[in-house]
């Protein structure tokens, strides 16, 4: 007798699901701290500034949208955008549909910097992963692939955008 695979969308989260979510969420700040520390040591921009640039890689955004996406106050975003603009990483321009609105977009220099930050941040995490056994790395890759697919799935849009 074969058993059909369980579909995540057909059941409520269990206690085990909540435990796994807690484990994942507790790892994210730790990984970010390790990666951010190494990047900062190598002269990269701050993580706060990088968060703004990461949001602009896909498309130009209004300041209010940046504030929402980065969970920052509009005043904080304004200060960060000012500093990024002074360093040539972003530029402000008028919205094509509403000239009263200012849009922030990443520059070529900003793209190069965010790519560099990503490389610097991946290195210490890759070193930790390299310390795992081959079997554990295969399991981690499978689990992360499954999680990426679940997050990309249009079935449920319960995650923040």
- Structural class assignment: mainly alpha
**What value does the Rg take, in angstroms?**
19 Å
Sheet of most strands: 3 strands, antiparallel
**Quaternary structure type:** single chain
Query: What's the rounded overall pLDDT mean?
Result: 87
Which fold name fills CATH's third level, the topology? Arc Repressor Mutant, subunit A
Q: How many β strands by DSSP?
A: 3
Distance between the termini: 41 Å
Low-confidence runs of at least 5 consecutive residues: none
What is the second-level CATH architecture? Orthogonal Bundle
Percent strand equals 5-15%
Helical content band: 55-70%
As laid out across the biggest beta sheet, the strand order is: 1-3-2
CATH class designation: Mainly Alpha
CATH superfamily: Winged helix-like DNA-binding domain superfamily/Winged helix DNA-binding domain
Looking at the structure, what is the overall shape? globular
Question: Could you explain how this protein is built, in words?
Answer:
- The protein has 6 helices and 3 strands, in the order ααβααββαα.
- It has 161 residues and is mainly alpha-helical.
- The protein has a single domain (35-149), classed as Arc Repressor Mutant, subunit A (Orthogonal Bundle).
- Strands 1-3-2 form a 3-stranded antiparallel beta sheet.
- Helix 1 (15-41) packs across helix 5 and helix 3 crosses helix 4.
- The protein is globular and about 55 Å long.
